[in-house]
Design brief:
Blueprint lengths: L13 H6 L2 H14 L6 H15 L5 H10 L4 H22 L5 H13 L2 H6 L49 H17 L5 H18 L11 H14 L2 E3 L2 E2 H9 L5 H11 L3 E10 L3 E6 L5 E5 L12 E7 L6 E2 L4 E3 L4 H14 L3 H21 L16 E8 L2 H10 L3 E4 L2 E5 L6 E8 L2 E6 L2 H15 L3 E10 L4 E4 L8 H19 L12 H6 L4 H20 L9 H5 L7
Antiparallel strand pairs: 1-2, 3-4, 3-6, 4-5, 6-7, 6-8, 9-13, 9-14, 10-11, 11-12, 12-13, 14-15
Helix pairs in contact: 2-3, 3-4, 3-5, 4-5, 5-6, 8-12, 9-10, 9-14, 10-14
Length: 579
């Protein structure tokens, strides 16, 4: 570190820059500004360092954007401020709008970088940063007007930089007042007296990954910025900087006189918040969510706008709900987990609670646990894949044959050892295990062959041809992927048969779920859904399965699919559907 001298107008060697510890990079940026006699808020210096981190990453477009902005006339330093302003907007949106973590927020940020130009930057107030304010005590956000230069020294207007939260037309004056309180708390937390504490908290947060991630390497996490935000919030509200006091407690005790009554009430509410695991009971688009706390069973309605466009019923989410002052709202990071992970997460949380030395210690550990569990379940593992007993991907298939000689065809199907007749339907069973493989159904002048995988469909069609090739004529195959609700057609079906293909798939789903009610299900300990509905011990498993099916259907509809309405299965099983 002693030999590293940083100059933002000269691109640092990426390997040398990344070899520095994060606190060394921040110190190098701060030292540059101090050499020029300029003292900037810690947030400005931190964002400056993050942009350099991104520029040193060959997998990100930031270095290319900086080079382009320089060709358009900006100094490299100004280009860093231009990129940093967009980064600040992205971070504030995630913090204040409780945007869902994941690739969507990253794409929005990178798309903004693609459209960023020197001209647009200068037209919005971009200027050489050192021509802004010099102050040993950086002014808080409340001291700057919306169109004034940002006190952080970036040269952009305040509303386009640290005050990005104020751009939202839907934000009330009260919300803006609370945003100022959060910003003041963050400035307070970055005082030199807390430097060692923040470094230790970050180390503890990252070290926890080794305990919580089973087969994953946290260094490969594709959302480092989400980790930075989680570390910041954990450090502010959960970690004790001294006995029985977190940073928010110290801030309120020392700076209470600088805050309005509304700001004090808001931060009082924030210090009472804890990360919790919720199940989504109902979604009110553009308004909010009804949630059930999975640890204590209580319910709460939260006001939430952005999340309602991405969350569906029965989702499992973790977040920090501030209930006072009302109305209840999410604050900070919001995590969305696969629905099928609910049982395992609850089991692990209960074990963690039993092992914790105290309930407060358990609650303080939850933000780390929720973050790294989200990394493991959503970023580092592929989504679940439906497979048959043979290990093949599940596809719902229906092949059609035109019947030429019905009598001869029926005789051939009756004589087949693996087929059992039930009226106009022949059930296809595996000889050794009696496993259901599919069905053959006569419908007027058509033979419909239905299976659960492409390979089974090929085998079934070969069976038909071997039994009665001269009694039928193959017409085509419709295939549906239940995971994505996407439909395909074999080359045997003409493109003009779209309506027929959709009708085939719909009919297949309706028949499949009618038969499913009386089919043994492994997830129900090989009971049929009807048996499970009548058994008090099996009924909770069935309810969980129905919720998972509804959740998957809602996700498919969100992607533009037209899934089967599984909600009608509740009444078919004599169960009251939760409302």
């Amino acid at each position: 570190m002693a030999d590293f001298r940083y100059d933002p107008n000269e691109s640092p060697n990426p390997a040398a820059w990344l070899a520095l510890a994060e606190d060394q990079r921040i110190a190098a940026v701060r030292a540059y500004h101090h050499r020029g006699g300029y003292t900037h808020p810690p947030l400005h210096v931190t964002i400056h360092a993050i942009v350099e981190n991104q520029a040193a990453d060959p997998d990100l477009p930031v270095a290319t954007v900086l080079a382009r902005l320089q060709r358009e006339g900006l100094t490299r330093h100004d280009a860093i401020h231009a990129v940093g302003a967009l980064l600040a907007e992205s971070l504030y949106e995630r913090l204040d709008d409780t945007a869902l973590p994941g690739e969507a927020a990253n794409r929005r940020y990178f798309n903004a970088l693609e459209t960023l130009t020197a001209k647009s930057w200068l037209s919005q107030g971009g200027a050489e940063p050192e021509r802004s304010s010099r102050s040993d005590e950086p002014p808080g956000p409340a001291r700057a007007g919306r169109n004034d230069p940002c006190p952080c020294g970036s040269g952009r207007k305040y509303k386009k930089c640290c005050g990005a939260a104020r751009q939202m037309s839907t934000r009330s004056a009260q919300r803006r007042e609370w945003d100022d309180a959060i910003a003041a708390l963050i400035h307070f937390a970055h005082r030199s007296e807390f430097a060692d504490f923040l470094a230790a908290a970050a180390d503890a947060f990252l070290d926890r990954a080794a305990e919580d991630l089973e087969d994953c390497a946290y260094a490969d996490e594709p959302s480092a910025e989400q980790s930075d935000m989680a570390i910041l919030l954990w450090s502010l509200y959960d970690v004790e900087v001294e006995p029985d006091a977190c940073l928010v407690d110290l801030f309120l005790s020392r700076k209470s006189r600088t805050l309005t009554a509304s700001q004090r009430e808001f931060l009082d509410g924030m210090r009472d918040t804890r990360m919790r695991l919720f199940e989504v009971l109902r979604v009110y688009p553009e308004e909010g969510l009804d949630l059930r706390d999975l640890l204590d069973g209580t319910t709460v309605r939260v006001r939430e706008r952005l999340g309602t466009t991405q969350i569906v019923r029965w989702d499992v989410i973790a977040g920090r709900v501030r209930q006072s002052p009302g109305p209840a709202m999410f604050e900070g990071c919001l995590y969305l987990y696969p629905r099928e992970a609910k049982a395992r997460m609850l089991r692990d949380l209960r074990r963690l609670r039993r092992q914790a030395p105290s309930e407060p210690a358990f609650m303080r550990a939850l933000p780390l646990w929720f973050h790294w569990r989200w990394v493991e379940l959503t970023l580092m593992r592929p989504g679940p894949t439906l497979v048959t007993a043979e290990g093949e991907p599940v596809h719902l298939t229906r092949s059609l044959f035109k019947v030429v000689d019905r009598g001869r065809l029926e005789g051939a199907l009756d004589a087949a050892a693996d087929l059992r007749r039930d009226g106009a339907t022949w059930i296809w069973l595996e000889s050794a295990s009696e496993r259901l493989l599919g069905s053959f159904r006569l419908e007027d002048d058509r033979l419909s062959v239905e299976t659960f995988s492409r390979n089974r469909d090929r085998r079934a069609c070969q069976l038909v041809r071997s039994l009665a090739d001269d009694s039928v004529q193959y017409e085509g195959t419709a295939i549906s992927d239940p995971a994505s609700d996407a439909h395909e057609r074999d080359s045997g079906v003409a493109e003009s048969d779209d309506v027929q293909a959709e009708a085939i798939v719909k009919e297949f789903y309706e028949r499949h779920y009618r038969e499913w009610l009386n089919t043994p299900v492994p997830a129900l300990n090989d009971r049929t859904p009807r048996q499970a509905a009548a058994d008090g011990r099996s009924r909770p498993r069935l309810i969980e399965l129905l919720k998972l099916m509804e959740n998957s259907a809602a996700r498919a509809q969100q992607r533009g699919g037209d899934p089967y309405d599984v909600s009608q299965l509740w009444s078919a099983l004599g169960l009251r559907r939760p409302e």
